[in-house]
Design a protein that fits this description.
- It is globular and about 50 Å long.
- The termini are far apart.
- The longest helix has 21 residues.
- It is of the alpha+beta class.
- A hairpin with a 5-residue loop joins β9 and β10.
- It is built from seven helices and ten strands.
- The strands form two sheets. It has an eight-stranded mixed β-sheet with strand order 3-2-1-8-4-5-6-7, with helices on both faces. It has a two-stranded antiparallel sheet with strand order 9-10.
């Protein structure tokens, strides 16, 4: 996987010109020609602003599903699209070291837009994050984890080129509107009470139970409130979740 290209891809604090800079790359330009009209039609149908701010990506490994959410014109998160993931390596459970071929699990953000990727177009996430660094004892934890095209995976979330173009356009538009942090929540499966109880029965997943119960808190917050929690990492490496509405009211 090609590494981070912050400067080369126009990933800067000049949000207003980000889309313009991205469209100077041939693959992005062609993707816009093929997909932007359909993208805008989907926005209209979902009552989502064509500017597409407040984007959120959610991944379920077992179901092999990637969801894109955004806020509609009433300020409520709704599902913009759901895509089948073409390929993911590894098994259920977090990524803990380089070469384990695992797709990470946890709460991440987009940190790289790569319009010249070896895998068509790609969006990099901030693995390893503070949780991964604390909970893994491995000297080399790996990195360069992307959402990308080409349908091949070695720890990444591989999509068809058709799907990655729409996902990439959505992320570019969100970034252009000033969304500096695009959340990416990666779960082993849809973390309902029933699914959690089902996976608790299997010995091979015993080592993950504490971590998964921690992830479930973040999953449940969004399911119950239709808004994203404020996510932080404690000194023990486990995630802490707060209601941003309550925090705002307290201030």
């Amino acid at each position: 996987m090609v590494g981070f290209l912050f400067l080369a891809t126009g990933f800067s604090h000049d949000f207003a010109t980000f889309e313009v800079t991205q469209k100077t790359y041939p693959r992005v330009s062609v993707a816009y020609e093929r997909k932007e009209e359909l993208f805008l039609m989907k926005c209209k149908a979902k009552q989502i602003s064509e500017q597409f701010s407040d984007m959120f990506i959610r991944v379920f490994k077992q179901e092999e599903i990637m969801e894109i959410w955004a806020k509609n014109t009433q300020g409520t998160y709704i599902k913009f699209a759901e895509y089948n993931i073409a390929s993911m390596s590894g098994t259920l459970g977090p990524k803990r070291q380089q070469g384990d071929l695992q797709v990470p699990e946890g709460f991440y953000t987009i940190v790289d837009f790569n319009p010249v990727s070896n895998y068509h177009l790609s969006l990099g996430i901030n693995y390893p994050n503070n949780s991964d660094n604390t909970l893994s004892a491995a000297t080399r934890k790996g990195g360069d984890i992307y959402i990308h095209g080409k349908e091949v995976s070695s720890g990444c979330m591989a999509m068809t080129d058709y799907y990655i173009e729409e996902i990439y356009i959505a992320a570019v538009k969100a970034r252009t509107q000033g969304q500096a942090s695009i959340p990416v929540h990666i779960f082993p499966f849809k973390m309902s009470v029933i699914n959690m109880a089902y996976h608790e029965r299997y010995p091979q997943f015993k080592q993950h139970q504490k971590f998964w119960k921690n992830l479930q808190l973040g999953y449940q917050f969004f399911e119950r409130n239709s808004r994203l929690p404020q996510v932080n990492v404690g000194s023990d490496g486990y995630y802490r979740f707060a209601d941003p509405m309550a925090t705002r009211a307290a201030n």
